[in-house]
Amino acid sequence: MDYVIGVDIGTQSTKALLVDRNGVIVARHSAGYQLDTPKPFWAEQWPSVWFDAVLECIARCVDAARERNIATSAIRAVCVSSLYGGSGIPVDKDIRPLHPCLIWMDRRATAQVDWVREHVDLGRLLAITGNGVDSYYGFTKMLWLRDHRSDVWANTRYFLPPNAYVIYLLTGEIAVDHSSAGNIGGVYDVERRDWSGTTLDMLGIPATMMPERLVESTDIVGGLLSQWTVRLGLPPGTPIIAGGVDAAVATFAAGATRAGQHVAMIGTSMCWGYINQQVDARHGLVSMPHVFNGRRDMYVFGGAITAGASVTWYREQFCHAETVAAQTLPHGDPHVLLEEAAARVPAGADGVTFLPYLMGERSPIWDPKASGAFVGLNLVHTRAHLYRAVLEGVAFALKHNIEAGRQGAQSLDDRLIVVGGAAHSDLWMQIIADVTGYPVFTIEQEVEAAMGAALLAAVGAGLVSHAVAQGGWSTLVERARPNAHHLAKYAERFKVYVDLYPALKPFMHRLQV
């Protein structure tokens, strides 16, 4: 039997899976870490944190293989996917990091956004790249480094996405997959599937800072260097596959490989995306080549910056009693107690609406100065009401993106697949079904991007055909169907949700410190 390892570098942890050529999970491991947030709206990470986690996860999976008497030579490939790395890692001529990576969550480049809007032909930029202008995009973060870290800028040889940097350390080869390149926005020509010399010139970013080699997500970047064989237990030359951006890889893991299929990945953030053959930046969503059939298909998505992060924030700040009480229970999970209480609250949280804009917001409003809010509070409301309102608020953000996506989608399937940590919550899955109107399906195996990376590795190593990969390895299970009564109530509440942001926007901006 042949095996592969799929690795996913996430915002707060790295996960790896060892699977056989049929997608059966043999071993798994994860390693956690903390994001660096030195100032409000800043979010960055030194790449050594990611690399150490990748080494640990791969090594533990290989150890598990040995314990099962699996020869390490039977592990035929490793694929690395990663979070959207924003600016990417600025590295010098010796590929040494010069500065932390400004990740997707970082919103510091607001002045650079203003500069682009004032000095660049926006119509041309949008038409070439299929993407808009916002501090979310990596190219604006690059401009921030140019304006505020002149020493870093002067010594930067390349900007490398997280997975590309890790793969370089493993193989000595530099390559960027097309999904990661496209997600930078502003510098990638979606029609030509190449860096855009035109927009790079318009932005004042040297084309030489973009790595020359662009590859498909299933391509072999290089073989494992012999220096890692003892640490990892893998043979030298083990193929390392390019991978891609985690949201697209998780979408692939859920079996989304044809136009119209759509998947919501709800973890720290929320990404809802669908497969399409064309893009239009005017609809306010993000576009990149898909990680499967990327020469033909685009992955088009929108997202909320703080989805699961909103839930974590609420629990940590306001639910100490539940956290303490859960310690005495077998499951030890305060969310179980919070959901039991929230499930007794009527749909609509008795009039409370939550705006999940705790780090500004991405699509479709694209406002780094947006802020979170509970609206509709009165003395009858409890922590359970507010907890339910948080779950509903993220579901409304999901629907907001779906409505924007409908404008450019060739079609959308009549079911919604949800992956990520939110899929553990029966209550949240029902709320999402009731808000969006879609039956909700989740992956039975409870794995997402790491499984997608493993499948990409199997395709890249020639263990799985494209035809088999198109169906995926994952088994989907139906979790919730829309409740007609709740659907009508949420339709009215969604109108309130959409109207709240423009009404509160002036005050949100005035309250910025």
UniProtKB/TrEMBL annotation:
Stretches that traverse the bilayer: none
Gene Ontology biological-process annotations: carbohydrate metabolic process
Keyword Transferase among UniProt keywords: yes
Domain annotation Carbohydrate kinase FGGY C-terminal: ranges: 264-460
Stretches assigned to the Carbohydrate kinase FGGY N-terminal domain: 3-252
Single GO term (MF): kinase activity
Keyword Protein biosynthesis: no
InterPro entries according to UniProt: ATPase_NBD, Carb_kinase_FGGY, Carb_kinase_FGGY_CS, FGGY_C, FGGY_Carb_Kinase, FGGY_N
CDD domains: ASKHA_NBD_FGGY_RrXK-like
UniProt keyword list: Kinase, Transferase
Family stated for the protein in its record: Belongs to the FGGY kinase family.
Protein name as catalogued: Actin
